[in-house]
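ok so for the tutorial part 2 we go from a plain amino acid sequence to predicted structure tokens. step 1 is just haveing the sequence, like this:
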Amino acid sequence: MDLIINSKFFAQYSVPELGEKAIELGYDGIDLCVRPGHPIHADNVIEALPKAAEVWRSQGLVCPMITAPVTLVDPESPEIENYYTACAEAEIPRLKIGFWKYQPGNDYWQVVDTARRDLEKIVILSEKYGVQTCYQIHSGPCLGSNCAGLMHLIKGFDPQYVGAYPDFGHLALDGEDWAMGLAMIRDYISVVGIKDAYYLPQQEGQTPRYRPCFTKAGEGCVDWHRCLGLLHEMGFDGPLSIHTEYKFDETIIRQVGYAQTSPPNLEAWAKEDATYLRKIIADAV
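step 2 — the prediction. this is what the tokens look like for a chain of 285 residues:
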């Protein structure tokens, strides 16, 4: 299981600098956010991504996936094919698309049907370019807020072209028993998101009494020995993407794609995450 660092909070670094930072923090590679405000974005992805991948390979790093903007779910959008073209050229096998959202008052099953029709069109690009489309579990009003919800969206698609992206921090908030949830999606698991979460007490009189908060691995509700052990038992050997979302509360958790604020102790805790996870992985194997 390669440990890769999500570049959401590292947009200030150039391509070579990002690679150097990943090495410094103890990671095997990069989960690259290709988004506005980052060095690689929709307007330059076709040219810039293959060059970046070459730089990281020369540094001894892997880049097994890119993360697109959270809005990238429209198969008719003018830029969506560029992401697949660039991944194919860069030999990057996975593309994490955005999220379909549920709005209060929607017919849930109609939302699912519409999303599945869109996904069916997006999968044509996966087949054309040989790049797997990955969909992340995300708590809140996103389709696929847990493993059961994710299967509503992706069940029946070819796992070669559609990958499940479970995220243990979000599953701690909106999920199921970990063994049961992973069993639901086991044929589709391609990459795993790493973050931890717990519940903070609010001031007396506030409702609800507790609100969820993200933290570094090992300080929240996730049983990492159990979760990573389950992945090992299932034969999973894909990348683990560490998102470095530390000390963000409910108001931020529900804002998918946010990156306005850098977490406290970002680099120190990202380095501690890598060390902590490697020890658990070693224990599991």
